[in-house]
Amino acid sequence: MKPMTYHPKIIMAWVKALEGNHEITKWLNENGFAELPIACSAIYLKNEARTWLMENGYPHLLAMINAAEGNLRALRWLEKNNMDLLANMAKAIEDDQNAWAWLKHNATQDLFILTQTIKRIKDGIEEKHNDIHSFGKD
Fold it and tell me: Taking the alpha carbons of 58, 103, 20, 14 in that order, is the dihedral positive or negative?
């Protein structure tokens, strides 16, 4: 597994990429952070991005994304491998208030904002999936 240690400015660039900033997405791709735009695609349910994360040393990032979608096996894997930050991010995205409290006390502000952003995106995807007028449009 490749390490996931990023400067707070890179985390905030990841947030902007998640929000759709194409210039920042391009910059991340061109400056050694290709896994972050790929993770954006995985968060937006793109299977080829999920495969890439798994095959290129980021199973822990994929496990966080899967756990944030309610996959308990992925969550247990994170917990078993002592990836408390990623596990609590996933649980917070799934509305676990204890996980939000854990993040508030143990994560940096940039990671808290990243978690909020992923939650907002995941909630939006779920809302679209539950809307009969947008069924099958993503």
Answer: negative
Residue with tokens 């096996």: 73
Q: How far, in Å, CA of 6 to CA of 97, rounded? A: 25
pTM of the model: 0.89
Closest by CA to 113, choosing from 123, 96, 100, 95, is 100
pLDDT digits (tens, 9 = 90+) for 58-111: 999 999 999 999 999 999 999 999 999 999 999 999 999 999 999 999 999 999
Distance set, CA 74 to CA 68, 86, 113 (Å): 9, 11, 22
DSSP 77-111: HHHHTT-HHHHHHHHHHTT-HHHHHHHHHHS-HHH
